[in-house]
Amino acid sequence: MDAEVHPHRLFEGVFQVCLEEKSPRLATLNLSPGINVYGERLVRVGDVEYRLWDPFRSKLAGAILKGLKNLPIKLNSKVLYLGAASGTTASHVSDIVGNSGYVYCVEFAPRSMRDLINNVCRFRNNMAPVLADARFPSQYASMVQSVDVIYCDVAQPEQAKILVNNARIFLKSGGWVMLAVKSRSIDVTKDPAEVYKQEINVLKANGFEISEVIRLEPYDKDHVMVVADYMSRNF
Predict the structure, then answer these.
(1) For labeling, which of 6, 151, 223, 229 is most exposed (least CB within 10 Å)?
(2) Which of 166, 190, 193 is nearest to 178 (CA)?
(3) β-strand 147-152 against 171-182: which pairing, if any?
(4) C-alpha pair distances (Å), 41 with each of 9, 44, 110, 196
(5) pLDDT of 75-115, one tens digit each?
(6) Which residues sit opposite 50 in a β-bridge?
(7) Domains of the chain
(8) Quick check: helix, strand or coil at residue 54?
(9) Bond prior to 7 in cis (omega within 30° of 0)
(10) How many other CB atoms sit within 10 Å of the CB of residue 37?
């Protein structure tokens, strides 16, 4: 099968793969060749293998396709991933940061954690599974070092507060956060736009500077991706 691969014009570690004259698809370089995570297609070009990145399965991929301008996750990054589930997006983050980076994967559900360990982490040297509740970061403080980026995708109320509490302990000065706000997990009675504003205001009140807010439709309904840094934080 003929395929053309081009580096993404903005983001290091992200690629665009053209297959059979179809529109380009997002992909990452597979850190564990021959192994996929969620049934994604593997594409080999010469000696290099890429994993197609499905935006309907990954909010981060959806954000990129919706025009994300700043992706703080890059080669060598240390990332704390809150709500890693079975590893769909976390595995692509692992690909991007490479073997010189690291991804701490916090997940509360034992079944998802088993899948994360058995299908993803055991094939990769740059991922650490952490079975814990992201609401209580002090419980895993001894297992996680300081990170450059916190990626938060938790289906719980007070999502921004959870992120802020983790940032107080783990985020380096000058670091970044990415928050996937799920409005229906916070309050099904409120208009999603009101929920987004509420969560963004929590970040602002804790010294974060909002870089961008990306709506994720049609990939995820009633979701936005918020990117922020804390250069001006007042923790």
Answers:
(1) 6
(2) 166
(3) parallel
(4) 22, 10, 27, 33
(5) 999 999 999 999 999 999 999 999 999 999 999 999 999 99
(6) 29, 43
(7) 3-52 (3.30.200.20), 59-229 (3.40.50.150)
(8) coil
(9) no
(10) 24
